[in-house]
Structures are given as C-alpha cells and as structure tokens.
Write a structure and sequence with these properties.
By secondary structure, the protein is mainly α. The protein is built from 31 helices and eight strands. Helices cover 60% and strands 4% of the residues. The longest helix has 34 residues. The chain is globular and about 85 Å long.
C-alpha cells in the first residue's frame, strides 16, 4: 500500500505539470482530484508493478486531462474513460498502435489525394484559372481532422496510451528506444493541441494565397532594357522570382556574352523586388518595357514612357496575413505558443538558438573570408553582393548553358519524357534495374505553373509527385537542374514510405533531411546526363560550404523577421517591409560586407520562400550541413551499387529526431565542424 501511495504521488506531480498550462487558460474542466481518481481507477483494476507503465499512465492522464473540454464530458465521464481505455498490457497497446497507424494512414492518404486533385488547376500548367479554382485550391480536406478525432475520442485514446515527449526527452532517450518505441513516440506527436477547423482553414488559405502570388511572379527578361536601351536577354526568356533569376545569374559565371552586365541587371531587379519599388504592372506583363536601373517604364507597343505605381508592400502583405493566421492558431497551442516554437522545437525538432549558433559559426568563420579571396582570385575582380551565388566550383560552371539546354530539351520535351527516363537515372546512381523500376513506379512527373516542387505521398498506395516547369521548346537546363532536385525529394519519399517498418516512422526527421537528399541528386545532375561520375573533391566541398554561407544569411533574416512580427504584432505591411529591409541590411553588414562589400545591401531578403513558406528557409542550410556529412560518409562507398545500398539503408531510418538519425546514418550528430575543418585544409594548401 505504501508503494501504491508513493506511485500515486509521483504520478499526480507528473500529470499536474502536464496540465498546468491548460488550466491557466481555463480550457480544461478536469481537476487534479479527478486525475487522481482516474489514475487510481486504473491501478485498482490492473496489477501495475512496472514503473514505465506507471509513468506512462501519469503522463497520459495529465495530457488527456489538459485537452479535455466540458463538451467532451464531465469529470466522472473522464474518470470512466481513462479506466476503460488505458492499455496497461503491452500486447493490447501494440494492437492499438497497429490499428491507429493503419487508420491514420488511410485517412491522411485519401484526403491528401483529394487535396492534390483540388489544387491541380492552380498548381499544374494547362487549365485557364477562374475564381472557383482558387477557392478549391485553398480548401483543406483535413482541416476538421483534429476536431473529429477529439469528438469521437480517438485523439484522447491516442494521447492516453501514447503520450507526448518533449524534444529534450526524445534526445535524451534516443539511444535506448527500439524502432517500435520510436513509432509509439510519433503516435504521441499526433494530438498535442486542439486547433479548431476554422483556424486550420484560415492558415491554409493564407498559405495558398501566398503560393499563388509567388507562382505568378515572372520577370519577362526580354522586356528589360539598360538605361541606353539595349536588351541583354534572349527573346521569350521568362524567369520566376527568385529561383530562376538566381539561376540565370549563376549561369553567367560561364564564358558567355555580356555576362557581368546581365548579373548586374538581375541584381538590380532583385533589389527592386525586395524594396518593392518595382512597378507592379511590369510583373508577368508583356505590355511594358522596364529599365531596372532608372526604374523607368515604357509601353511595349510604341516605347512611350508611362508612369506606373510601385508594388509598395504587396509582397509583405502576404507574410502579414500568414502571421495573423498564426496568431489565431497560437491561442490553441499552449505548449508551443508561437509559430516560431512550433516550427523549430516542434516541426524541425532543432531549437532555434541551436540552429542560429551553428549558422553564426559558419558565417563568422575565417574560412568564409579565405574562400571569398579564392573566388575573387578566380574571377579576377573584387567581389560583388551577387557573388553569394558564385557557381564556379561546380563542373558545369565552365560549360555554356546553351549547350546543356540543347541536350535537356532534346531529352525532355515533356514531363512524361523525364518520368520515362527515371529508371535509367537511378541505375546510373547505382540502384539495380529492379529497384530503380520499383522506385520510379511510385513517382509521377507533372508540368508546373511555378518553379516546380515535390509533393510527397502520405500513404503506401499514393505516388510522390515531381512538379517541374517545362517551356514550349522543352526542358531547359535550369528547369532540369531543379527537376533533378525535386526527383531527389521524391526518391527519399518513396524509400522512407514504401520500405519503412512502421508507418508512424515514415518520412525524415525534418525538411532539412529531404533537402539533403535533393542536394545529393542535384549535385549529380551532370552525371545523370552522362558527364562522368560525381565524387567528393576540393571544389565540391567549397561549393557546399559557399552554399551554406549564402543561405544561412537568408535564413537568419527570415528568423529575425518572424521574431520582429511577434514583437510588433500590430505592424502594417509597410512597417514590415521597412523592418525586413533593415534586418537584411544589418545581417549583411555583420556577416557579408566584410567578404563581399557594399554597405547596407538588402539582397538577403529576396528569397520567395520568405513569402510562401514561413520559416522553411532554415531547412536549406541545415540540409546542406546534413548533405556534407552524408557526402563525406558516402565517399567511402566507391562502388555505385554500394553507394545506392548505403543510401537506402540511411533513408530507411525514417522519422527519428535529427541527431538520432544522423548518429545512426554517419556515426556523428549534425554539426559544422567537419566542413569547417575540410575547408581550412583546402584553403591552407
């Protein structure tokens, strides 16, 4: 009896801490005494002598109580619910996990397929868009999922038997848990809050509106002029901001006509977009000629100068709308009360402070300055701000892009051509013919309105979708390079969904790890075209490092922007625009001006993901860090078949926490010390 009372005391303390935040918000109608009675009812009806079961009981009761509302029932109902539904027997708990996992896969997959179908008009090329397409495109079939699962008590059954563990707890116990226990932990992540369906729809709607804005943000390059009236870019060149603008700038590190002048003009266009003094009507509009340096506009029909209004702050209104939607969501997320916490501690499972520390370690390093000197020497000039996109370390940098484009257009006249060629590309990487065909059979390739992306599946009978932009003449090299990146995403999705041992472990720790796989493929794009095999060498290391440096600054601007929004919740779009420009300049002056010059440059705020993918950007540099460690590890597997088998092993690890995944993959946690050491050795030669 004494041991029972001691156990009860410990459990009461545990559930009290779990429900404290909820009670402060007056959302739960369950008292501590009712929790005590619920725990006692289980202990009296079960011979619970296992401390791990006792701990799970206390944690599950506390978390379920914190999520219980008056509409769910009385305290007596709660006590009876706990008694009836807590699975003390491991075999019964395992059976419950199997049934929950299967049901979640069915629900999520079929609703995802519906989402994909509803969004096709706005995402894929082809249809003439109407207002109804945008309405369906912003609709989320899963918005009521959380509401429904709490109403029918499935969410409570899940929480009670598979309670949530914090990131710190997951990291602390990661070396002790079995695969099954990891799957149980991921079940515990399913229901940690009760966000109403109307709020979920609001958040999704602001996402889709921002996506539609970005997807149509095309710059007609043959409608740009120098101030003396010259056109630098070829007819019918249309570049989506920021991706295609950046890639066109990169392509001009090759020996091509007017290379420097083109780069300078693209840089000026980017500045105009960030600062929003770009004339609104020159975007995606053939009716006007624009001179970016003087910011003058002329009618295309007669070249008469006209006066057009600037965008002003349109770009930043989309960000602000998403912030306001997140504010609504914050009210229902007491354990993760801001979008910032939800993104880093929840989604990425990397604390923002830790990520910022790693980024600053690279950005402030002596190695950055030394690599900058090396680039300046190769270019034979002082560096300019746009040299953050220096592309000269890649083998393709010495190859004229028009030669590569001629080849990709010949190979891929349509999305279907790329899809048919996927097995060959996978065999090229080292996969067996059988495995290559199996992976490719779960991937479809579709023509996109925007720059392209990959849409993963949520069930083991749905394909991964590669969306790619293809012009009327076929796939140009820029599009091919992006498509190979998205192809890498899709292969990752197939490997850790169709081959995974537990559905709840399908996927990767966070988006950075799928980016790492995409980077692995993208770095091998020339290999896939038949230009020899990719291997780690000094230039590849320097290219990955310089890519880290570039995108880390962009990510820090994004992180600081979101902190500014929470510090200034009543700001309007103009105030946000001015704050972002100031933040971008400050980050530039601190970490980039010493290397690239130009005081107060705002270019770090150009990335479109700042607008249509809140706080996604930090996944890119983190993904580069993961990529480098994987490349370093995979370099030991010289035989292509061994390389592919090791890649499969790694991506079968599934959704562990980031450091647990990396430890299992390469033997070390995620960090930057190895790449810094490698770069130090290279520049010291």
């Amino acid at each position: 009896m004494k041991r029972r009372l001691s156990t009860l005391f410990a459990l009461v303390m545990l559930f009290a801490s779990c429900m404290r935040t909820q009670n402060e918000n007056d959302l739960s109608n369950i008292s501590k005494d009712a929790c005590y009675q619920a725990i006692n009812s289980v202990l009296e009806s079960n011979s619970v002598n296992d401390s791990s079961i006792s701990e799970r009981l206390g944690r599950g009761v506390g978390q379920a109580a914190g999520l219980w509302r008056e509409s769910d029932g009385s305290e007596a109902d709660f006590i009876q619910f706990v008694k009836d539904n807590f699975k003390a027997d491991p075999a019964e708990r395992e059976l419950l996990a199997v049934k929950l996992s299967r049901a979640f896969e069915q629900y999520l997959c079929y609703n995802d397929m519906l989402t994909v179908d509803l969004q096709k008009p706005t995402v894929l090329e082809g249809d003439t868009l109407t207002d109804i397409d945008y309405i369906f495109g912003s609709y989320s079939p899963t918005a009521h999922f959380v509401d429904d699962m709490f109403e029918n008590k499935v969410a409570f059954i899940t929480v009670l038997n598979f309670p949530f563990y914090s990131l710190e707890e997951k990291n602390a116990g990661s070396g002790e848990w079995s695969r099954q226990e990891w799957a149980y932990l991921r079940l515990g992540d399913m229901f940690t809050s009760r966000v109403p369906a109307r709020v979920s729809q609001m958040v999704n709607g602001t996402y889709q509106a921002a996506e539609n804005y970005i997807a149509g943000y095309n710059i007609l390059m043959d409608h740009l002029e120098t101030d003396d009236g010259r056109v630098l870019f070829p007819k019918d060149m249309v570049l989506l901001s920021h991706w295609n603008l950046r890639d066109e700038l990169k392509s001009n590190y090759a020996d091509v006509p007017n290379a420097r002048e083109k780069q300078e003009m693209i840089f000026k266009v980017m500045e105009r977009i960030v600062c929003q003094d770009i004339p609104a009507l020159v975007v995606n509009n053939p009716d006007y000629i624009w001179q970016p340096y003087s910011n003058r506009v002329f009618r295309a029909s007669d070249h008469q100068e006209v006066s057009l209004e600037p965008e002003g702050a349109a770009r930043y209104r989309y960000i602000l709308d998403q912030f306001h939607a997140f504010q609504e969501q914050d009210r229902y997320e007491p354990s993760m009360p801001t979008a910032i916490v939800r993104n880093f501690d929840g989604g990425l499972e990397v604390p923002q402070a830790e990520m910022l520390r790693l980024f600053q370690q690279v950005m402030a390093s002596d190695q950055v300055k030394e690599v900058g000197k090396l680039i300046a020497k190769r270019l034979g000039r002082e560096l300019r701000p746009y040299d953050i996109w220096y592309d000269g370390f890649k083998p393709r940098s010495s190859m004229p892009e028009d030669v590569l484009t001629e080849q990709t257009r010949r190979l891929y006249a349509s999305a279907h051509d790329f899809e048919k060629d996927m097995p060959r590309q996978l065999v090229n990487l080292g996969f067996s013919q059988e495995k290559a065909e199996s992976i490719a059979s779960h991937i479809v390739v579709e023509g996109a309105r925007g720059s392209g992306h990959e849409w993963p599946m949520l069930g083991r009978w749905e394909p991964a979708r590669v969306r790619t932009r293809i012009g009327t003449q076929g796939m140009d090299y820029k599009g091919y390079n992006i498509c190979v990146h998205e192809f890498g995403h899709a292969v990752e999705a197939v490997l850790d969904m169709y081959d995974i041992d537990h559905y709840m472990l399908s996927g990767v720790p966070n988006t950075a790890f799928t980016e790492a796989m995409a980077f692995l493929f993208q770095y091998r794009d020339l290999q896939l075209l038949g230009y020899g095999r990719h291997g780690m060498d000094d230039d590849i290391t320097l290219d990955i490092f310089w890519g880290m440096y570039e995108i880390m600054g962009v990510s820090v601007v994004d992180m600081r922007m979101w902190q500014w929004l929470y510090d200034n919740p009543d700001a309007d779009a103009v105030q946000l625009r001015d704050a972002v420009i100031e933040i971008a300049r400050d980050v530039w002056n601190s970490y980039y001006e010493p290397v690239l010059g130009t005081h107060d440059c705002p270019i770090l705020a150009i990335y479109s993901h700042m607008v249509n993918a809140p706080m996604y950007l930090p996944a890119y540099p983190y993904g580069h860090m993961v990529q480098y460690q994987l490349e370093e590890h995979l370099a030991a597997f010289e035989d292509p078949q061994d390389f592919a088998r090791e890649l499969e092993r790694i991506y079968h690890l599934g959704r562990l926490t980031p450091n647990a995944w990396m430890k299992n993959a390469t033997g070390d946690v995620v960090g930057v010390s190895s790449v810094l050491d490698a770069v130090r050795a290279i520049v010291g030669k």
